[in-house]
Amino acid sequence: MEIIIGHNNIDFDCLASMLAAKNIYTDAQLVLPMNVGRDVREFINMYKDVFNFVEENEVEVLELTRIIIVDTHSSSRIGKFKDHVNKPGIEVIIYDHHIFCDNEITSNKMRIEEVGANTTIMVEEIKSRGIEISPVEATILALGIYVDTNSLMFSGTTARDAYALAYLLEKEANLSVIEDLTLNRLSLAQQELSQKMNQNIIIDTLCGNEVGFTLVETEKYIDDAAYLTRKILEERDLDALFSIMRMGKKTYIIGRSMTSDIDLSVIMRLIGGGGHKGAGSAKSEESDLNKIYNDIKSVVKANIRPVMRVRDIMSSPVKTVSESTTIDEVYEVMLKFGHSGMPIVNENKITGIISRRDIDKARAHGYGNAPVKSYMSKKVVTVDSEESVKEIRELFAEHGIGRLPVLKDGEMAGIVTRTDIIRALYGGKYKGKNKKESERSEIGKEYTSDNLSYKLEELPEKVREVLELAGKVADEEGLNAYVVGGFVRDLILGVENFDIDIVIEGDAIAFASKFADSTKAQITIHEKFQTAFAYINEDLQIDLVTARKEYYEFPGALPSIEMGSIKDDLFRRDFTINCIAMKLNGEEFGKIVDFYGGRRDLYDGLIRILYNLSFIEDPTRIFRAIRFEQRFGFLMDEKTEEFAVDAVSSGVLEKLSIERLNTEFFYMLKEKNISKMLQRLQELGLYQKLYPEIEMTDELVKLIEKADVSYGDFYNSLINKKNIDKILIYLLVLYSKINVDKAIVLADRMRHTREYREEILKFIRVRDLIPPALLLEGEPTNYDIYSMFMGLSYESLYVMTLIFDDRVKDAILLYINNLSLIKNEITGRDIMELGIAPGPEIKKILDRVLKEKINGKIFTYSDEINYIREKFLS
Asked: Which of 169-174's residues contact partners 24+ apart within 8 Å by CB, and which partners?
């Protein structure tokens, strides 16, 4: 077992160092000491999902193999682990910025360097190893440096601390969070100014945001008013604060905002100043502070976004159980839907809540048949659906809980999790890392915009008109309508895609009939699945689906479905890039809904699953991940690829029917870059499961690549153009390296269609005949060539041109463009009229005539008649 520890009474620098170490030593467990200060404890409670700590007393010391120690190397500061740092068999790694200490621990792996914050050393390690970190992690690491260096002002601060901070800011560290936890000391004048500012404050509620305005006059200029503005903003728990101060003969306006809904870069510019989204300032010659207050208030009202409320981010409807439900039954529900907690209700009033941990404990003690009421927590912290996200953030930290039931009019309306809060706060603050810079800037605008209605202007008029009508019908019916999935993904990427899926929060069947009236579409209803198909014209058809949630009875099963919310519906999808929705309702037309970071992953060029068991529940998603990699030039993120390999290794593919495997594999064969996809199948262990009889050699890879690039030339050389089956071409390439016996076994095991099976076997038999035919003395006649290739498909003939030399290729083109077009003019009736009796002889004569004609010895109908008279009637 590997663990990461810091010192007792950890501060933010130690906490940040531990998180950084976890990024370096990914298999190690973060361990929290017995004593933790209130501020750090509250911070950890808020970000439990980031840290995933265990308590010191939970660690089994006898299982230790490695201890990583940060921000100290004193044995007196590491609790019970001091007795184990010198034991044989336990590797000790140390990162510390304290040069001298008592009770020093020594190790051959120590990095002790004199910098302002220990986190600086950890950031340098992360950077040198090329490890990517998220904006949340960057923020926590930056917080460690800011706090330990007093915002880079302590005398022990080094240039390295500043460089480390600069790197973290590049990684989108959030300065608002950091500033929340830093304090300044006030002079007497500043204390008096602070008192005046508090006394003269006016608080207005603007579009759901609490906005303060403080009007103060002083005889002379007092510095650090910006800090006081921020301090009062925090103390009053406001969303924004504007300090309007007449100091001497000038008026200073300072703005601070805690929410992206109030963008000070816009507001301050409109009143003659400047700044960024969270902070700005302006100067004015105006001495009437009330006039300035009214002017700024008007500007704020005109440029504010509505506050994000709990109802905007909660999951609804909520899966609940009654008080009489047994522990085992609750366990099955949790397992089926992947929940880690479950609300308990009585007549739709919430009476308790129970966690997966409590369920597991009760079952372990043999109480599976007991009612859940006996073990639920009855002190339930709830929130109202109209509360702001900012307000409930504090409840998570205060109570150390992971989820909050949401009430509307006293009844259960939804549930919101700590993850939902973190996504709401940080979801849009990411920066690309895999795409080229030019590609990033191209996608960046679409990535950052909260509304893509302007992108819809680029679509054909009919498509745009239909989407607008869908939103209008949804408004009339009191429903929410969203266009989802690949259409939205490709809209962001600038790729044409008119495969449109519309998800309805509510009854899609009822919506479909109204939609049909508005669009004159032909509607096909599927009551069982609560879906409908709208045929508008030959180029435009739309799937209408009721928002739903899915669960899998067992790995590889087809999903079971029940009604859900848009959030549920997006969560059931395969990858984050396909989990983006766009709202169609009138007032919010074009609004992007992205609960799972899909735009971030589009920007980064990543394929990411939504939850760890995704590939276990539906292994076909692995095939789709590979397809999307090659289609878009993306990569699976590291964890997703690990889960793919683990799923294949677990044998979950064996639970899929051959038909489903074939379907996904054939989808791949329709894409571009087939060779790269097949190589990825092999890297992930999938190819060996599908085609163990066919070794993926370098020679085969080159043949597949050749099939990709040579087809255009082959097709252009044909006189009679035909539609070519691309799937069959690549199947033939794969089968081209095995013998007929293996091919029969493999084709039967893979349950290819009768047409595919027959063509594959014909191809292999002819393939085996060609080398001996070419070794015969003399050139083959035209009829030899005709006989050899007769009955083979264009696909087989094309693959033959790839595996043999130019002589065979020339013979094949001669056959296709010339010999295969030669037909007898004479018929069986003509032959009987010459006096030959009906029977097998007629066919033999026709074959002989065709042979002579193909070999260029006879040409016309008269030639054919004369040939028959000479050879068969003389």
From this structure: 169/138, 169/142, 170/431, 171/133, 171/134, 171/135, 171/137, 171/138, 171/431, 172/135, 172/138, 172/139, 172/429, 172/430, 172/431, 173/135, 173/138, 173/139, 173/141, 173/142, 174/135, 174/139, 174/426, 174/429
Evaluate the CA torsion angle 823, 826, 828, 829 in order and state its sign: positive
Closest CA to 549 of 568, 576, 527: 568
What are the tokens at 670? 């329709």
Which residues are CB-contacts of 332 (< 8 A; sequence separation ≥ 6)? none
pTM above 0.85, yes or no: no
**For the domain that residue 755 is a member of, what is the CATH number?**
1.10.3090.10
Picking from 589, 588, 590, 608, the residue whose alpha carbon sits closest to that of residue 600 is 608
**DSSP 3-state of 575:** strand
Identify whether 517 is part of a domain.
Answer: no
| Structure-token pair, residue 159 | 């240039």
**Which segments in the chain show pLDDT lower than 70?**
37-39, 49-50, 100-102, 150, 153-156, 180-186, 274-277, 306-307, 337-338, 397, 400, 423-449, 550-562, 773-778
User: What are 504's strand-pairing partners?
Assistant: 481, 546
Q: 729: which 2 tokens?
A: 């071409």
Q: What pLDDT sits at residue 443?
A: 41
pLDDT at residue number 731: 92
Q: Is residue 796 part of a domain?
A: yes
First to last CA, the chain: 98
Taking alpha carbons only, the member of 69, 561, 18, 33 closest to residue 337 is: 561
Q: Which helix (H) or strand (E) holds 163?
A: helix 159-170
Backbone angles phi, psi at 428, to 5 degrees: -95, 0
**According to the model, what pLDDT value does residue 430 have?**
32
pLDDT at 550: 57
Kindly state whether residue 44 falls inside one of the protein's structural domains.
yes
Q: How many Å apart are CA 691 and CA 704, to the nearest integer?
A: 15
Q: How far apart are alpha carbons 815 and 787 in whole angstroms?
A: 10
Kindly report, residue by residue over 508-523, the tens digit of the pLDDT.
888 888 888 888 888 8
Question: Same structural domain for residues 170 and 201?
Answer: no
Residues 6+ apart with CB under 8 A from 647: 615, 616, 619, 622, 653
Structure tokens at 187: 């002079």
Residue closest to 759 by CA, chosen among 786, 793, 736, 729? 793
Question: Do 199 and 280 lie in a common domain?
Answer: yes
The encoded tokens of residue 22 equal 């976890």
- For residue 307, the model assigns a pLDDT of 67
What is residue 780's predicted lDDT score, i.e. its pLDDT?
Answer: 84
State which of 243, 267, 302 marks the end of a domain: 302
Q: Is residue 583 part of a domain?
A: no
Listed residues 363, 397, 426: the one ending a domain: 426
Domain that holds residue 382: 310-426
Same domain, 240 and 197: yes
Helices and strands (H and E) in the chain: how many: 39, 29
Nearest-angstrom CA–CA distance, 302 and 512:
38
Contacts of 581 (CB under 8 A, 6+ apart): 482, 483, 484, 488, 503, 566, 570, 592, 593, 594
Give the integer Cα–Cα distance in Å for 437 and 344. 51
- Chain mean position to CA 753: 35
Residue whose structure tokens are 């639970």: 655
Cα–Cα distance for residue pair 717/805, rounded to 1 Å: 17
Predicted pLDDT at 531: 82
Q: Phi, psi at residue 468, to the nearest 5°?
A: -65, -40
Residue 523 near residue 509 (C-beta atoms within 8 A): no
- For residues 751 and 658, the answer to whether their CB atoms sit within 8 Å is yes
* Whether 51 and 173 share a structural domain: yes
Q: What is the pLDDT of residue 441?
A: 37
